What does this fold into?
Amino acid sequence: MSLPQQQSRDYYERAVKVIPGGVNSPVRAFRAVGGDPLFIRDAQGAHITDADGREYVDYVGSWGPMILGHRPAVVVDALRRSLERGTSFGAPTDLEVEMAELLCDLIPSLEMVRMVNSGTEACMTALRLARGATGRDVVIKFNGCYHGHSDSLLVAAGSGVATFGISGSPGVPDDIARCTVSIEYNDLDILQQTIQQIGADKVAAVILEPVAGNMGLVVPQEGYLQAVRDLCTQHGIVLIFDEVMTGFRVALGGAQERFGITPDLSTYSKVIGGGLPVGAFGGRADLMEQLAPSGPVYQAGTLSGNPLAMAAGLATIHHLRETNPYPRLEQLGQRWMDGMRRVTAEAGVASSIDGCGSMVGMYFHPGPVRNYTEVQAADTELFQRYFRGMLAAGYYLAPSAFEAGFISVEHTDALIDATIEAAGQVLKEVA
Ligand code: HOZ
It folds into this structure.
């Protein structure tokens, strides 16, 4: 199958000489699906256009931020206005206060927040804060959950670590990795036993994705999140919800609103930056007050609370609050799932399809898929062929079997239906 990707190939040839692997983040490489990455020229609404001028329906959405689609007018206008004031001051601005007030207003568990520049920073600092506040060292995470690339959190991680089968990263000292214990998701018994084995008085935090979106899409089992909450409360362990993907995505108040759970700390990125580089973490005031300069736990950032990022994020969140697209996004996600179930069955392909609002996922696996062990049993070779067929048909999916898909308010019923029909055709050819 030959694709008209000459321009992308030319850029890639130049890129590999000066950028490791030719990409600035491993998940962008097409190594798990074959071929070279597309270089993107521009995007609008639900579509992106590559450097050769070919248009695709986009289900990556910049890995989650673009819930309003690409280049939404409210965000572009807010950025234009903000540009007139300057791009960075390294000093507080009104926009940061407005953002903090808005986040605390919309998410009841947030009594205070601090802005950073990425989800990695948010999760890394939430851990430091939990450790600093409890005086304990051990952190429990879950296999296949990804919380950015800080040393403590790369153990048994999802996303690129799962995609490329990296078992642990050279450069992370054993002494640091030893303080992270990673266990199976969606299994309360294992969590209970692990806390007992380690000793509850040594566990600073439990961190999880309330809907796991970095090993494909794995939803929490009924009652699981509440049981994790109760266990953490019982043992004085700080419960951290990584809402980098789910925040303002699966509901305005994120997964904690959707499932009715109150974590101690939460981390954010993606949607709250409206497409600009942003992260945030927040939660109980007694914990947050431990941060410098109020307290001794240190965290800092030259560009933290950057005015352009705040402007884009505020415009996005205000728009989400005013227009409430969540019921509509829910319908679109359901339409995608129903259709995909139908066409995979028609093509005779074993599949496990799930979703949470506008986050969706499909494994070539008979299901159920509840944890990373089951995720790893999915047919990745079929995924490769499916991915390449969909790309050729004009659909841009994450180039990995272990990533969630994202639907935006710009995806219409007609686009979803066309995607389903294309998927059915492709599966009939490649399965
Ligand atoms: N959470 C994103 C993918 N699962 C991060 C994107 C990246 O690593 O580039």
Q: What stands out?
A: Residues 6-67+325-430 form a domain with the Aspartate Aminotransferase, domain 1 fold (CATH 3.90.1150.10). Residues 25, 27, 63, 146, 159-160, 214, 403 surround (4S)-4,5-diaminopentanoic acid (CB under 6 Å).
